[in-house]
Amino acid sequence: MSTCDVCGNEYDRSFEVRMDGRSYVFDSFECAIHRLAPSCRHCGVQVVGHGVQAGDQIFCCVSCAVAEGAHGLRDHIPA
């Protein structure tokens, strides 16, 4: 049984995630997202989906990226 790095819960079905040379233990995807998902540079929401990137900055959507001065980005347009 391992202890979650976020909430401290001891859980027999915990899992390990390795990212950027570090190892983390979580008891749920919720805790993994809380610890590892980047936050939008503009609005602060945690980016769980694809998001967009402008330079080294992460945004939840093109609208937020443009509000921070990014250019040349567009949201997905369905066929």
Structural class: alpha+beta
> How many domains?
2
Helix count equals 2
Distance between the termini: 47 Å
Average pLDDT figure: 93
Numbering strands along the chain, what is their spatial order in the largest sheet? 1-2
What is the string of helix and strand elements? EEEEHEEH
How much of the residues is beta strand, in percent? 25-35%
Report the sheet with the most strands, covering strand number, pairing sense and barrel closure: 2 strands, antiparallel
User: What is the CA-atom radius of gyration, in angstroms?
Assistant: 16 Å
How much helix, percentage-wise, in residues?
10-25%
Shape summary = elongated
Organism: Marinitenerispora sediminis
Protein name: Prokaryotic metallothionein
Describe this protein with a few key phrases:
79 residues; alpha+beta; 2 domains; two-stranded antiparallel sheet; 2 helices; elongated; Prokaryotic metallothionein
